[in-house]
Amino acid sequence: MKSILAIFRKEMQLYLVSPIAYAVVGVFLIITGFFFQVLLDGVIRAAQAQAMQAMRAGGGMMEMDMPGLVMRQFFGLMGTILLFLIPMMTMGVYAEERKRGTMELLMTSPITDLQIVLGKFMASLALLGMMLLPTTLELVLLYRSSDPAPPWRLMLAGYIGLFLLGGALLAIGTFVSSLTENQIIAAAGTFGLTLLLWLIDAMVRSGTNSVVSEVLQYLSVLRHFEDFTRGVVDTSALIFYASLIALSLLLTLRSLDSMRWRRA
């Protein structure tokens, strides 16, 4: 455990002095803050238009869950943004180490490959948590200013989904980064692979065999994430993300093992 924490501290120190990490976090917060305001304004205008229409028709106004609608759209938006930003977060996890030659020093130290993988992954998860934490301020303000207030379950489920989605994308990105010493190739490969998993259910054609269609849709990270945006924490979604993270970390472990074997 001490070795894992040592790797974790080392990676966090690198993140805290890296301009890329600050740029990614800053861009994420600016974009999410801007679109939160856009989504809120859009929902308010839609509610006002509905009220005007109801007044002209002389009927009652239909109830509209504006806070819940804003939250669901906001979580979906943040999930999409993570798809574009996480490749930049993970492109240098192993690629930069290999390029600088520090990977050899790390692998010859009295630390196992598993400890290296877990320490680096925990650091990337911590950075993800630092990115997501400030966005809770907008939703807390929405919660306090709404009457009736949206259920806390929706907010909690949304952030659980974001953290699991981000963790899965981070695990995939670290695996791709372990395959090359070129950060651009690592970022492009991560984005291509995650985009495939993101849109795979949309690519299933209507004429496809039903069993094949269900399997492909199950592999879509988007389909599982949508349940969380509706406030539903589904066991199958938890198993899916946990399995995807475990598989990606296992592949990263095998990649480091092959690297050690080639140098032996």
Q: What about the largest sheet?
A: none
Radius of gyration: 21 Å
Beta-strand fraction estimate: under 5%
> Stretches where pLDDT falls below 50 for ≥5 residues?
none
Question: Outline of this structure?
Answer:
Helices cover 80% and strands 0% of the residues. By secondary structure, the chain is mainly α.
Describe the secondary structure blueprint for this structure.
Elements: H1 2-16, H2 19-57, H3 66-90, H4 95-100, H5 102-108, H6 113-132, H7 136-145, H8 152-177, H9 183-199, H10 210-218, H11 221-229, H12 235-263
Structure overview:
The structure is a single chain. The protein is an all-alpha fold and 264 residues long. The chain has one domain. Helices cover 80% and strands 0% of the residues. The protein contains twelve helices and no strands. Helix 2 runs antiparallel to helix 3 and helix 8 runs antiparallel to helix 11. The longest helix has 39 residues. The protein is elongated, with a radius of gyration of 21 Å.
Offer a few descriptive terms.
264 residues, 12 helices, mainly alpha, single chain
